[in-house]
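User: I'm writing a tutorial on reading structure tokens. Could you give me a worked example: one chain, its sequence, then its tokens, then a sentence or two explaining what the tokens reveal?
Assistant: Sure. Here is the example chain.
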Amino acid sequence: MNARVVQPATGSPKGWLRSALARFVGACGAESALVADLDAPYVGPDSVAGQGISEEPWLEAVRQARTVSEVIPPAGRPRVVFFEGRTDGGARTSISLHGDQSRWRTLAVAIGRSHPTPAERRAIGEALDRPWHPVHSSISLLDAVGRHTGLPFALFERRQLMWANAQLWRALELRDGVEIGLSFADPKALIAAARLEAAARGEIPLRGFVLTTLSGGQHLLQAANPEQSQRSSRVERLSKRWRLTPMERHELGHILLGRSSKEAAALDGVSPETTRERRRQIYRKAGVGGAGPLRAILDGYVE
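And here are its predicted structure tokens:
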């Protein structure tokens, strides 16, 4: 990925990535390969070492890895999960997800390779093994709070991005990215991270967020309006659960703003009947009889 990223305080040194890549290539015999540090806040050059793999196949491999990353590695000992996939161009991909102490820490990708043999599996596991270090206590706490409440958080050390949760990235409009380990993978993550660090340095404002100074040179970025942030997270979650189409999600925004069918139709340049039909589909999928009960669910008053 041809963009700069600041190496976080919790991440691995670039030297380890380069040596791990060399060991991984030797273990699997691939010419096109990549190793990524999942302890970094997001994927980028300082958290990724590769040869011969462009950004698109790498991101596709990350998305594939996300589907199996919910399988937690056993606590106390390393574990490697191996699986296969194909890039958008049809190239076969061998993916290795390495973790220890109940979290995934390293992702390795080999393009054009079949599933590794038992001997290659052992060699790859040894190649990706790395010194263990605990997750910062602040990160563990904030991540748990964010998962429970849906609130976005980012943590900085010496004004450099140390960690950000998935809710924070999505609040910055990175909706197609994936979270894996402590990292977030999205082509636009570099730009978003640059904005975050500029805001932490006081160079630009970041609307909707507040920056709090902590001890030890750390800073916390969080939602300025937690209630609105929680509501946005709830709307996003329920929209996926109800399987709303893009146009139905758009219409849901009109409903939340209290616009009538005629007002929404005029703004969108469609007929009122089209708007009413979209709303009927939303109410049907949500299992409610109208806008009032729907807003009550989205505001969290009823389940």
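What the tokens reveal: The two ends are 42 Å apart (CA to CA). The first strand starts at residue 32 and ends at 37.
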